[in-house]
Amino acid sequence: MTDPAPTTEDGFLGGRLRLRQPVAGHRAGHDAILLAAATRARAGDRVVEFGAGVGAAGLALAARVGGLDLVLVERDPRLAGLARANAAANGIRAEAMVLDVEAGADAFAAADLGPDSVDVVLMNPPFNDPARHRGSPDGARQIAHVATATTLEAWVHAARRVLKSGGALTLIWRADGLADVLAALGRGYGSLWLLPVHGKPDEPAIRVLIRAVKGGRAPLRIDAALHLNEASGIPTNSARAVLNGETILPSAIT
């Protein structure tokens, strides 16, 4: 009998992290690993990944930083189950819970994610503009990729609520939506760090990685861009090192 929802097992961080994920729907890729490489954390931190999917970003971070109290938040029960199994298969302690990031404070508190209880949040929210991007016919993929008018603000607000004062949010978003990210972070966050990500050196940025501190007061910092590929299409050495887990991005350096 054919599996109605088949999966593949894929290697990340140069093969050191093995993740099982659905063949159809949203599949983890470069964005998750870049997000992990941009996230600063220390042993003992309570770290929460919003919209974790199969756990790629959170587990990649935990593979680098041992001793985290890691929580993977995912609204899809099947993906949460895969995230739980992926954590176990890689020998990483993590809790994977079924919870909608846009649920209210009471739902978060019931899940032991009350206000001011988390050191680090990382997230790769749905960020495609429905007015400019045709949604996928695959329902799970569309939910994972297409933002509503309230997605960004709701996710940023949820992170602000659970973060301790001085805790940090790290997120990845499409580069042409940077103004929306800065507006969403305008309340309650400061000490912003920004890294543009380009597909090739001669092309506009396609992603931005942003780290923001709850209650931070330091000025905005913009680092030199990361180029994923040379003009010829060959991956750059710097991108290869990050994606293989050999190095991290400046915002993750403690």
Features:
single chain, 254 residues, Rossmann fold, nine-stranded mixed beta sheet, two-stranded antiparallel sheet
**Total domain count:** 1
- On the 0 to 100 scale, the average pLDDT is 92
Report Rg.
Answer: 17 Å
Number of strands: 11
Q: According to CATH, what is the topology?
A: Rossmann fold
Derived structural class: alpha/beta
Instruction: Write the CATH homologous superfamily.
Output: Vaccinia Virus protein VP39
Helix content: 25-40%
What is the count of DSSP helices, taking H or I runs of 4+ residues? Answer: 8
Shape type: globular
Second-tier CATH architecture: 3-Layer(aba) Sandwich
The biggest sheet amounts to: 9 strands, mixed
Low-confidence stretches: 138-145
Distance between the termini: 51 Å
Portion in strands = 25-35%
Any chance you could write out the topology, listing elements then pairs?
Layout: E1 7-12, E2 17-22, H1 30-38, E3 46-50, H2 56-64, E4 69-74, H3 77-89, E5 94-98, H4 105-110, E6 118-123, H5 139-145, H6 151-162, E7 163-174, H7 178-184, E8 189-198, E9 205-214, E10 221-222, E11 226-227, H8 237-243
Parallel strand pairs: 3-4, 3-6, 4-5, 6-7, 8-10, 8-11
Antiparallel strand pairs: 1-2, 7-9, 8-9
